[in-house]
Amino acid sequence: MKLYISLLLAAICCNWALAQSDPLTVATFNIRYDNPNDDPHTWDNRKDVVANLILFHEFDIFGIQEGLSHQVNDLDVRLPDHDFVGVGRDDGAEEGEYTAIFYNRTKFKVQESDTFWLAPETDHPNKGWDAALPRICTWAKITSVNAGQTFYVFNTHFDHRGVEARNQSARLILEKIEEINTESLPVILTGDFNVGQETEAYQLLRTAPGMKDTFDAAEIVYANNGTTNSFDITTSTERIIDHIFVSEKINVQKYGILTDTYHSRFPSDHFPVMAVVNW
């Protein structure tokens, strides 16, 4: 009997450990909207490179910014194991840029998802505060197929001009996380926040109770550059404006800013940021 109990306890502990240690690769990637004036860095020249970068680095779940409907669909076709959730910011359907969340459907199932606008009126397309453009945040409640772990992913793109809009957007997202995540599940927040680590909006998110920046928390950090490049391979920056925040309960194994190139060009005018996490 004692031997049976010992074996049973060992099996339970083993199963628990496997569920707890299953790593998840998350990322945020501003893919640059399809601007014909970007030639030779047009979307047609970049779309295969962007998709192959994602496949090579094995992003399980990632949020994109600036993708238009046809760009989102181009990625959907090129990532056969992934699905996505999200809408265009201009009409809540297909018009305007998306903050889509892609996820590997062989590993994860989406239980719920929605999009809200970064504005005092969050339920329909509009601009908030001093923002130059409508801005949105897409979220998904996701469950892993194997481990049965459920968590939330929020993905956003802050305004590039409105300082007040960025500060208020940070406050709004934190309020929405609390409002939506009534079960206190783990949370991952990705995005192009258009703010460096010295700004008020960033500090609001970094120091929010129960949240942390994966840059700070990672056991291994590979960040030899900032996150923007303007498609110019001759210059560099230290400024990080694309971030991945996570709940305090999430362990961050690795963090990286991926400065991949192809034929002396960049896949986008932003570098993707990735983190390997578990809990």
UniProtKB/TrEMBL annotation:
MF term (GO), any: endonuclease activity
Cited Gene3D superfamilies: Endonuclease/exonuclease/phosphatase (3.60.10.10)
Annotated Pfam families: Exo_endo_phos (PF03372)
Keyword Signal in record: yes
Record domain Endonuclease/exonuclease/phosphatase: where: 27-270
Source species, domain of life: Bacteria
Keywords: Endonuclease, Hydrolase, Nuclease, Signal
Signal peptide positions on this chain: 1-19
InterPro entries: CCR4/nocturin_mRNA_transcr, Endo/exonu/phosph_ase_sf, Endo/exonuclease/phosphatase
Name of this protein: Endonuclease/exonuclease/phosphatase family protein
Provenance organism: Cyclobacterium plantarum
